[in-house]
Amino acid sequence: KWKRKIEEDIMTFSSIFNDLVILFSFLLIGFVIREIIKPLQKLYIPASIIGGVLALIMGSQVLNIIEIPKSFSSMPGVMIVFVLTCSVLGVEINKSKINAYINHLCIMVSIYGMQMCIGTGLGYFLRKIWNDLPFGWGTAATFSFWGGHGTAASAGAVWAEDYGIVGNTDIGLIMSTIGVLACMIFGTILINWGVRKGYAVSVSNDFKTNPSAFGGILPLEKRAPIGQSRVPSSGIDNLAFQLAIVLFCILIGNKAMSLVKTLIPFLKVLPSLMNGILASMFVWSILKRTKYKEYVDRKTINSLSGVALEITIVSAMATIDLKMVSQLFLPILIVSFVIILLTAIFSIVLCKKWHKLNWFEKCCGSYGAATGSVPTGLALIRCVDPEGKTDAADTLAIGNSLWAPVYGSMPAIIPMLAVTMGINIPIAIGVVFMVVPIIIGTILLKLSKK
Asked: How far apart are CA 342 and CA 311, in angstroms?
């Protein structure tokens, strides 16, 4: 039995390793394509998106040339935990950062509320025209665009298993796919518009005079180290040491939250993606008050986060479900169009008004996260801030984590309220979520100017 267990473990690890071989091969091919086709560079499309789209096309859903590993579908959810855990380790939080986090939290909650009230209300109206639409289907506008396929499936399961309302899962998954596609297509348009307007801080639109900012080999004067050694390599490899710190935080977060959820069962609805970031905030808050804070190298952790983000984007793009079709596609398309348009408007207006620094990068992250998920938001940030020079990724990660306990419980709460108290309740909740943060953000903006 012991020998058989070892063989099974080896096979499992070997399978995961081989899956990563395929993923990084597509990433490399995406890089080569980007180097050859210069317009892709001018559109600020990273190799991870190109490689992921190529994998999608070559997979069973389109050309059926290769078999996409099943593990790809679960990679985004796993790797985003790693990315979020890295987001706060070694980051010195000052007053301006706190203000940015609070402002961004207000923006994200307001967008969430808009999607809830408009999506649910419009869904209720369209149901009078298309009678086959299931009760409460408009709430999928929030669960699909905000949390992606996983949240949409969770909410659909609650509708079906707890209340016997079927169809919301399929609708949610279709809308999630539309959201991801809209995120990448219109997100690219948004990025190019902002860069050409001069809103972006870290990327240039001058391809002729600064080609190295777009592709090719960096000149010597622009080559920078990916990190600094903090411990003697005779004891442990420095990259492995920083990786161990991040993974240790994830371990602490998982164990601690598992205990908390056992003691308080209601908290089981909270998403596991916040485990690592809560633990890393706790660990770093202790370390930074001691001499041991020097063990944490922010540059190396940024590099590790970048690798995890590449895995996240490639696997997410490669597993977009293109087979979702429905006879009710028209009302779904109507709601999707309205929500996507309003999400873009909210992101641009509120980020430009409330963020003093790097508003455009944060706008891209907000739009991406609110039309797909946190990984797609980070993907758009990576397009416009490839070297991580701004605080956009940190702001998105922290803002999302602060909001996660609430939106993580909504797929369980909203169906219950809609069924027991009526569809007007989710609409009313959406209005509150939309309006109150705008009032708070406006007050904070006035106070900061005094």
From this structure: 30
Beta carbons of 296 and 280 less than 8 angstroms apart: no
Per this entry, what is the length of the chain?
450
Q: Residue written as tokens 């056992």?
A: 262
How many angstroms separate the CA atoms of 392 and 377, rounded?
A: 10
pTM: 0.65
Mean pLDDT, rounded, of the chain:
82
- Residue 79, C-beta contacts closer than 8 angstroms, at least 6 positions apart: 308, 309, 311, 312, 315, 375
pLDDT digits (tens, 9 = 90+) for 48-59: 878 988 998 999
Q: How far apart are CA 280 and CA 8, in angstroms?
A: 32
Which tens digit of pLDDT belongs to each residue from 30-42? Answer: 999 988 988 777 6
Of residues 155, 154, 150, the one with CA closest to residue 138:
155
